């Protein structure tokens, strides 16, 4: 990403067909998308473009400005999340910050970065370089790491803040104005894009969890019903066995009582008969 990917802004009045037709002039497109809300809010009209070749990206950036339907669209390289911080991806600036610049020889440092783009101003002591084109800064960040005399040169973008104080002797009003203007052009578009991606991810996670809870609930209900049916069946079986045992026991006792009664009656009759015969 970055060497082939671009961020596009100010697309509220540009159709994707028109945008594709324009961008295809510079090479084969592998991906193109436009994001905007229903009200065409200026901060919500942005898109992403990816070329098959890095050469197409370079040519596209070198032929700025790009105007469609009478309006200039904003374009910048899309720095990869893996190697660039959020401020580096959001901010558009001509100023490159060199950490601990005085560790390196001044002329060597200037000559090295002069090969990468046209320099407007070089402040060795403060450790920054202002280039003529903000795209130069993005290209330098994409090409990290940089080495000078076998030592790594750590670079980043100048990140403006509300507390940024411009030296009265530097005459940087033009650069500061440009930084603030370009920064606000893409700040909200990128933040909205990241928020929508985050929101979509979380919504998918929530939906998955809801389905999983429902599945577990149904599974638990099925298990409970099976165990309940088994318990009822066992109770019914035990009840039937108990009744059968009671009936069989009751019948056996009744038969014994009848047999005893008959035997007792026969014995009494026999004794009565013998007694009568003795009397005569």
Automatic annotation (TrEMBL):
<dbReference type="InterPro" id="IPR000504">
    <property type="entry name" value="RRM_dom"/>
</dbReference>
<dbReference type="InterPro" id="IPR035979">
    <property type="entry name" value="RBD_domain_sf"/>
</dbReference>
<protein>
    <recommendedName>
        <fullName>RRM domain-containing protein</fullName>
    </recommendedName>
</protein>
<dbReference type="GO" id="GO:0000398">
    <property type="term" value="P:mRNA splicing, via spliceosome"/>
</dbReference>
<dbReference type="GO" id="GO:0003730">
    <property type="term" value="F:mRNA 3'-UTR binding"/>
</dbReference>
<dbReference type="GO" id="GO:0071013">
    <property type="term" value="C:catalytic step 2 spliceosome"/>
</dbReference>
<feature type="coiled-coil region">
    <location>
        <begin position="192"/>
        <end position="226"/>
    </location>
</feature>
<feature type="domain" description="RRM">
    <location>
        <begin position="4"/>
        <end position="80"/>
    </location>
</feature>
<keyword id="KW-0175">Coiled coil</keyword>
<keyword id="KW-0694">RNA-binding</keyword>
<dbReference type="InterPro" id="IPR012677">
    <property type="entry name" value="Nucleotide-bd_a/b_plait_sf"/>
</dbReference>
């Amino acid at each position: 990403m970055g060497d082939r990917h671009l961020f596009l802004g100010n697309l509220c009045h540009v159709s994707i067909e028109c945008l594709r037709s324009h961008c295809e002039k510079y090479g084969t497109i592998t991906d193109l998308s436009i994001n905007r809300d229903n009200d065409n809010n200026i901060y919500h009209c942005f898109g992403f473009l990816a070329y098959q070749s890095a050469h197409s990206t370079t040519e596209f950036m070198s032929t700025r400005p790009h105007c469609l339907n009478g309006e200039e669209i904003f374009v910048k390289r899309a720095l990869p999340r893996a190697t660039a911080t959020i401020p580096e991806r959001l901010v558009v600036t001509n100023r490159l910050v060199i950490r601990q610049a005085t560790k390196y020889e001044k002329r060597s440092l200037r000559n090295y970065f002069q090969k990468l783009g046209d320099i407007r101003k070089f402040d060795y002591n403060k450790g920054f370089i202002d280039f003529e084109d903000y795209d130069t800064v993005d290209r330098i960040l994409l090409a990290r790491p940089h080495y000078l005399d076998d030592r790594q040169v750590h670079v980043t973008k100048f990140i403006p803040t509300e507390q940024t104080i411009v030296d009265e002797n530097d005459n940087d009003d033009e650069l500061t104005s440009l930084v603030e203007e370009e920064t606000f052009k893409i700040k909200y578009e990128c933040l909205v894009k990241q928020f929508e991606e985050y929101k979509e991810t979380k919504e998918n996670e929530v939906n998955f969890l809801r389905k999983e809870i429902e599945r577990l609930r149904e599974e638990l209900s099925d298990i409970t019903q099976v165990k309940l049916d088994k318990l009822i069946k066992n109770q019914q079986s035990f009840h039937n066995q108990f009744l059968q045992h009671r009936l069989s026991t009751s019948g056996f006792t009744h038969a014994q009582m009848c047999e005893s009664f008959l035997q007792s009656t026969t014995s009494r009759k026999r004794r009565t008969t013998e007694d009568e015969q003795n009397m005569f």
